[in-house]
Amino acid sequence: MTAALPPLTVPAAVVIGGGPAGLMAAEALAEAGIAVELFDAMPSVGRKFLLAGRGGLNLTHSEALPAFLSRYGERAPQAAQWLEALSPQALRDWAAALGIDTFVGTSGRVFPKDLKAAPLLRAWLHRLRERGVVFHMRHRWLGWDGSGALRFATVQGERPVSARAVVLALGGASWQRLGSDGAWVPWLRAQGVDVAPLRPANCGFEIAWSEHLRERFAGAPIKPVRLHFEGFDRQGEFVLSAYGIEGSLVYAASKALREATERDGRATLTLDLLPAFDAARVAREVAHPRGSRSLASHLKSRLNLAGAKMALLHELLPKEVLADPARLAAAIKALPLTLTAPRPIDEAISSAGGVRLEGLDEHLMLRQRRGVFCAGEMLDWEAPTGGYLLQASMASGRVAGQGAARWLGSGPGDARP
Ligand SMILES: Cc1cc2nc3c(=O)[nH]c(=O)nc-3n(C[C@H](O)[C@H](O)[C@H](O)COP(=O)(O)OP(=O)(O)OC[C@H]3O[C@@H](n4cnc5c(N)ncnc54)[C@H](O)[C@@H]3O)c2cc1C
């Protein structure tokens, strides 16, 4: 057993979690002239941010604000407040001030020009250090002790830390090896904080594929394709995987699909395998006499339908439907596909659930624990990929940081009782 370290009293504010939300909160506090110390369990900060860089770092989106806010579903009103503190344009300006210019891709998504996260993170950390932010790595927060001090596990033993304001920015529970493991959920619940269970968002789904499909087509893209499920109806692409399906179109539908699998134990979506052709055209081409040609070469020559799409038809349709041109044509335009469960949260791009927003005031301070603020993915909101995750994480980090500054009396209006 290592001995406990002496208590540390931070002059003003502590931020726990060095992801984009926590770093943004630290920046807002430092801008307000407050001494801030940031703690993270990992040896370095921003690991998930760096991982996002592998996909080009989709920082935000360029669409108009009403459409942007609609991506947050029932949390759009709260997201609107956060985006007042840091709008999509303000986020681009912020990156530019760090020497990182951004551009709008063909889909309207916004990326750094070099499509990298590391230069942006490096410049950001440099500026934070210049502004006096002190970093404590390998400090795993364990909740509060009986005296109200923050408990941190360090390599030299446990260390109690006291501060007048705390921002928690602990992330969700996906990709746990990068730091965010959701271990905080019971500690906050023990304080009376209402936390919705963390669940996978922007995730793949399970399907009991045949061995043939798993072995021959895992990794094959299905594109273009239209996915319809309840209110969701969009064209895009996804990938067949050994366990089921994944990819951007599936992620976009994942909230509705997850809720249905939780509710009903399964979810049946329909696929339009030929979105460019209307149903009449497909029916006409499928019914065209095929002579001695196989079904595969018939569909390939008449409709350019082949490969993984053809494999899906064989996998999912009974022989009598494959042999009936009218029923086959209808299935090509609306192929039912039943999913049994989302993949585990650790594999997901992001988490749904978290600290319910009703338990926070407009500055993101916990009603149950005054002086403690929460930000980022640990809050109960979700959004599709497209830059909406980083935008809301960073904007809420700014709100929480400004709220903590105000609580300490250095922001606009002293909030302390
Ligand atoms: C593969 C992948 C690609 C992505 N690409 C994009 C993208 O292009 N665009 C986009 O908008 N979003 C993307 N995201 C999502 C985005 O990265 C997250 O939404 C964002 O990082 C959340 O920020 P956060 O600060 O709330 O949490 P995190 O980034 O998860 O940071 C939380 C921090 O808290 C620390 N921590 C947790 N628990 C403790 C503890 N007990 N004690 C001390 N420290 C602790 C962790 O170590 C971590 O550093 C992607 C995610 C993944 C997995």
Rg to the nearest angstrom? 25 Å
Tell me the β content. 15-25%
Low-confidence stretches: none
Tell me which ligands are bound.
flavin-adenine dinucleotide
Read across the widest sheet, the strand sequence of neighbours is: 18-17-14-15-16-13-19
Number of strands: 21
Q: Number of DSSP helices? A: 16
Tell me what you see in this structure.
The protein is of the alpha+beta class. It is 35% helix and 23% strand. It is built from 16 helices and 21 strands. The protein has helices at 20-31, 47-52, 65-70, 76-85, 88-97, 118-130, 184-190, 211-217, 248-252, 254-264, 279-287, 295-303, 307-316, 319-322, 325-333, 388-407; strands spanning 8-9, 13-16, 36-39, 60-61, 102-104, 109-112, 134-136, 140-144, 150-154, 157-162, 165-168, 195-201, 205-206, 221-229, 232-240, 244-246, 267-272, 335-339, 341-342, 350-355, 372-374. Strands 18-17-14-15-16-13-19 form a seven-stranded antiparallel β-sheet. It has a five-stranded parallel β-sheet with strand order 7-3-2-11-21, covered by helices on one side. A hairpin with a 2-residue loop joins strand 9 (150-154) and strand 10 (157-162). Helix 11 runs antiparallel to helix 15. The protein starts with 7 loop residues before the first strand and ends in a 10-residue tail after the last helix. 44% of the residues are buried. The mean pLDDT is 95. Bound molecules: flavin-adenine dinucleotide. Residues 16-22, 39-42, 45, 47-49, 51-52, 55, 57-58, 140-141, 169-171, 174-175, 179-181, 183-184, 349-350, 376-377, 387, 389-390, 393 line the site of flavin-adenine dinucleotide. Flavin-adenine dinucleotide (FAD) binds next to helix 1, helix 2, strand 8 and helix 16.
